[in-house]
Write a structure and sequence with these properties.
- This protein has ten helices and ten strands.
- The chain is of the alpha/beta class and 326 residues long.
- A six-stranded mixed sheet has the order 1-2-10-7-8-9, sandwiched between helices. It has a four-stranded parallel sheet with strand order 5-4-3-6, with helices on both faces.
- Helix 1 packs across helix 5.
- The longest helix has 18 residues.
Length: 326
């Protein structure tokens, strides 16, 4: 009989799925690494389990402990699933720009959720970075995950996602494109792929209001680049230690409107019911058109599932209110 001993054993080995209609104008083959097949419906299941296992191994996370993390939702889901199986409690801190579905989803898997304002500086005591760090210091027998600077984040993708993509493309991949938030996915996958073939190009998708693109190109952390944006799960107003800029060949920025519109188009034209960052990622691939030839194999990673955005990007009233559709 073939079965998994628990839900955690189903993490990884997600399929590669070809894009057809949205990429018709491109000369190359475009394949999506379809991460919603993970049990928590996102790529973050991989690093959540890796971070927990590494913290258990070196004693940072002790039996019966409480896991504390600031999350936009997906890392929290991955951590919560592992916590259920392994017997931990979870407290998650979220910014108020995240969809209501994400908050409800985390509560559904037994987590306590604290919501903080988005439009404050990272070092403001009300920010979700500050609140999660403070809770980590104040809560007895707790472990503050800190996915932004936790090396187990990138390690998970170096050990699993990268090798899977290399094997699934039979080493024919020429470009890897992915949205960048904590930096774990692009850095871990990129490092593995470039070790196999240094000619593979690694492109990050950034958003307006985030610091990544300018910092990569100039080395300047420009606070004037920072302002609130709608796109969820990518971009930052900090420089996480997991972003290894030396591995990234370039960034392209996608607008909030384009990210939202292309999230809907993926669903309606490709049958791919995906999250907000997938819309940004596929629009980013289209913006990079001049970099591709007919012999190229482009792999774009799609992070999470559309069910987390039904009140926003998949709600036409919300889309009209934002001015994204007529």
């Amino acid at each position: 009989m073939k079965y998994a001993n628990n839900i955690l054993e189903t993490i990884g080995n997600t399929p590669l799925v070809k894009l057809n209609k949205l990429t018709a104008e491109l000369p190359c083959l475009v394949l999506s690494k379809y991460e919603t097949f993970n049990p928590g419906n996102s790529v973050k299941d991989r690093m959540a389990l890796q971070m927990i296992e590494d913290a258990e191994a070196d004693g940072r996370l002790k039996p019966g402990g409480t896991i504390i993390e600031g999350t936009s939702g997906n890392t929290g889901m991955g951590l919560a699933l592992a916590a259920i199986i392994k017997g931990y409690k979870c407290i998650f801190v979220m910014a108020d720009k995240q969809s209501k579905e994400k908050v409800d989803m985390l509560k559904a898997v037994g987590a306590e959720v604290v919501v903080c304002p988005t439009a404050v500086e990272p070092d403001d005591p009300r920010s979700y970075y500050s609140v999660s760090k403070r809770l980590g210091e104040e809560t007895p027998n707790s472990w503050y995950v800190n996915q932004y600077d936790n090396p187990s984040n990138a390690k998970a993708h170096y050990l699993s996602t990268g090798p899977e993509i290399w094997e699934q493309t039979e080493g024919k991949i020429t470009h890897f494109v992915v949205g960048v938030g904590t930096g774990g996915t692009i850095s871990g996958v990129g490092k593995y792929l470039k070790e196999q073939n240094p000619n593979i190009k690694v492109w990050g998708i950034d958003t307006y209001g985030s610091v990544f693109k300018k910092y990569h190109e100039t080395g300047i952390f420009d606070e004037n680049e920072i302002y609130p944006y709608v796109t969820e799960g990518i971009g930052e107003d900090i420089l996480p230690k997991n972003v290894d800029f030396s591995i990234i060949d370039g960034f392209t920025k996608v607008t909030d409107k384009d990210a939202a519109v292309y999230t809907q188009r993926l669903s309606k034209e490709e049958g791919m019911f995906l999250g907000n960052s997938a819309g940004a990622a596929i629009k980013g691939v289209l913006q990079l058109k001049e970099h591709f030839t007919k012999d190229d194999v482009v792999v774009v990673l799609f992070h999470d599932h559309g069910s987390r955005y039904v009140g926003k990007m998949f709600n036409d009233d919300w889309m009209r209110k934002m001015g994204y559709i007529d």
